[in-house]
């Protein structure tokens, strides 16, 4: 297997984030048009990226606006090794993991209006959105061809350090559109288990075809297309890498740092820069409290390089480091969005109600 990436591979990974469609061939056609390449070449490149998932920590997923489903992320970090499920009673588990040298943690999806459980022996953080990173070509290195195993080299941190230095020279200006972004108008659609099943399948395989969804969900393509058009695709941001292209032999730790920002503009600009860094997996953010969590996928010794960059921002921009954690990648379990069959979400009162039958869902769809 060819383990090297060229510039076109990186361009495809970056451009995928803006693709909001379903179907392997459709995705390839959109990328071919945007990159001015023939569709067959793009298909071969996508096949190569998908095949690398078997050997490397490379995983594609869709990114969607979780807050439009009336949900939020709640992250728990415990100092001791415990059974998280016995302490936290939420049903929608998103991920769980072990901390280094000891401790454990979990992230849950919780209805926005539901009070947050805050155990006395845990650090608790609330977030309202997630963004998959969009790796920048220049931050992978200056050579036209490179190998995945070298993406954690020290020169990558040097390149990223130059990008971060631009933050230090920026001028703070008014930036008051946070409420407009994160408090959108309530959607007219009623999200039900069919929508969540589609999202779940696309999280597992964003290149899935309509026929694949038909087989997985068990309803006709007619209704899947309607749910995609009216419910799912309007809240999809695009697709991208959920885990970085780093060899499993060269990445054993997620260095997660949680930062509080002095103003919305600094938060926005920092996210803009960090999203381009190849070793950032994704970013989750709480814009109302100006808090964000940045996970770096790297070997434990390289965490010092990441910390130096974070400390520079703390010193120069007044960013507060709330906490930092080391997550054992080998223990990390990530779950797609769960759902309960024959349940419907009403966005107006933020509640889930049972529906009598699948026929009722389909009959009411035209009014949803």
Question: Mind explaining what this structure looks like?
Answer:
- With 368 residues, this protein is an alpha+beta fold.
- The protein has twelve helices and 17 strands.
- It starts with a strand and ends with a helix.
Features:
27% strand; five-stranded antiparallel β-sheet; 34% helix; 368 residues; alpha+beta
| SSE sequence, one letter per element | EHHHEEHEEEEEHHEHHHEEHEEHEEEEH
Shape: globular
Total helices: the number is 12
Number of strands: 17
How do the helices and strands line up, and which of them pair or pack?
Elements: E1 4-6, H1 7-15, H2 24-35, H3 39-52, E2 57-64, E3 71-78, H4 84-87, E4 93-98, E5 104-111, E6 122-127, E7 129-132, E8 145-147, H5 154-168, H6 178-182, E9 191-192, H7 193-204, H8 210-217, H9 221-232, E10 236-246, E11 253-260, H10 264-274, E12 282-286, E13 291-298, H11 303-317, E14 320-328, E15 333-334, E16 343-346, E17 351-354, H12 358-364
Antiparallel strand pairs: 1-8, 2-10, 3-5, 3-6, 4-5, 4-15, 7-12, 9-16, 11-13, 11-14, 12-13, 16-17
Helix pairs in contact: 2-3, 5-11, 7-9
Quick recap:
The protein is of the alpha+beta class and 368 residues long. Helix content is 34%, strand content 27%.
């Amino acid at each position: 297997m060819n383990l090297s990436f060229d510039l076109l591979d990186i361009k495809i990974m970056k451009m995928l984030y803006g693709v909001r469609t379903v179907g392997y061939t459709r995705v390839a056609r959109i990328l071919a048009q945007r990159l001015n390449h023939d569709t067959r070449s793009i298909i071969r490149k996508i096949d190569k990226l998908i095949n690398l998932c078997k050997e490397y920590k490379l995983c594609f997923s869709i990114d969607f606006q979780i807050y439009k489903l009336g949900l939020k992320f709640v992250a728990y970090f415990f100092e001791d090794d415990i059974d998280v499920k016995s302490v936290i009673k939420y049903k929608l588990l998103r991920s769980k993991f072990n901390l280094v040298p000891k401790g454990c943690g979990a992230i849950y999806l919780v209805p926005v209006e539901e009070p947050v459980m805050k155990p006395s022996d845990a650090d608790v953080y609330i977030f309202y959105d997630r963004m998959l990173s969009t790796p920048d070509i220049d931050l992978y290195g200056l050579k036209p061809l490179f190998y995945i195993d070298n993406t954690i080299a020290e020169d990558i941190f040097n390149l990223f350090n130059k990008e971060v230095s631009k933050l230090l020279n920026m001028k703070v200006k008014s930036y008051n559109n946070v409420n407009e972004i994160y408090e959108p108008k309530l959607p007219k659609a009623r999200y039900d288990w069919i929508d969540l099943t589609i999202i779940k399948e696309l999280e597992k395989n964003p290149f899935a075809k309509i026929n694949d969804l038909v087989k997985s969900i068990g309803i006709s393509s007619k209704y899947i297309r309607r749910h995609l058009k009216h419910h799912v695709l309007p809240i999809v941001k695009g697709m991208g890498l959920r885990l970085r292209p780093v060899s499993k032999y060269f990445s054993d730790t997620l260095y997660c740092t949680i930062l509080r920002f002095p103003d919305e503009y600094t938060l926005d600009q920092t996210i803009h820069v960090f999203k381009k860094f190849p070793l950032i997996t994704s970013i989750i953010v709480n814009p109302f409290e100006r808090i964000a969590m940045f996970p770096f996928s790297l070997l434990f010794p390289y965490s010092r390089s990441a910390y130096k960059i974070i400390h520079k921002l703390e010193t120069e921009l007044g960013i507060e480091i709330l906490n930092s954690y080391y997550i054992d990648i080998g223990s990390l379990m990530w779950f797609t969005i769960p759902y309960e069959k024959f349940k419907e979400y009403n966005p107006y009162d933020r509640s889930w109600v049972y529906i009598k039958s699948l026929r009722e869902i389909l009959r009411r769809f035209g009014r949803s």
